Amino acid sequence: MNTTLSNGKTAKKHQNNPTAALTEKYPVKRGVIGYITYTLGMAASRLLISLKAEGTELIPKKTPYVIAANHETYVDGMWIGTYLPAGHFKHMSCIAAKDLEDQHGLIGRLIVKVGRGIAIDRFGNPIRGLILAKKKVDEGNILLVHPEGTRSMDGQLGEMKDGAAYIALKSKVPLVPVFIDGGYEVFNRHMKRPQPRDPVTGKKRQVFIRFGSPLYPADFEKARDMTQALTTWMENCYKTKRVPRAPVMPADDQ
Prior knowledge:
The protein is an alpha/beta fold.
C-alpha cells in the first residue's frame, strides 16, 4: 500500500514538474554494461591505433570541471576519459544529443551509457538541458561538452557554441579545452566502421588527445568571451596539427 502511494505521488510530481523526472534519469547510469563496453573499447583502441595524450598535467586535480572538446568521432569521450586523473572517470558525464539514445541503434545506446549521457534536444529548445547539465555539475559531476554540437562533417572545426562556457561560468568551475587530433581519419561520421590503419602505408593511424590550460570563470565576464578564448585555442591547435588532414572516403568506397 505504501509503495503504491509513494509511486503515485512520484508520478504526480513528475507530471507537474518534468524536470524532476530528468533530474533522476540523468546522468544515465554507466553500470556493468557501460564499464565492460568502455574496457573493451579502450583495449581495441590501444591495440589498433597509436593513441597518445599530452598536457594531462594541466587537468584539474579536484572535481568538478567542464571539458570542452572538438568532435571528430563517436568515441571522443571514451578516449578523453581514459586520460583523466585517477578516480575522475567515474564522475565524468557528457552532454549527448537526445536522438543518440533512440536513433543511432545499439552503438548510440552504448555511447550514452559509457559517457553517462545527459540528453539535450538539439533540434528543439536546449535551455532545459543546459539547466539540467549545470545542476549535475553543481552536484559534483565532470561534464564533457562538444561546443560544435555535432561530429565534424569534413574534418574542419565547426563554430563553437556558448553552452560549455555558460555552464562553467554559472557553476563557477574551470573549463578544460581538449583537442582531438587524428580521430577523423580513424572513425568519422561517413564511415560505417573504423579504419585504424592507413590504406597506403598499412601503419597504425595516430590519434593525439591534447589537453590545454583551464579557463577560469573569474577571468571572464560573459560566456561569449570564454567561448572566444576557447575558439582561439582550438584554431591554434588545428593550425599546429600533428596528423595531416587528408581526404577520407567512407569505408565502403575504399
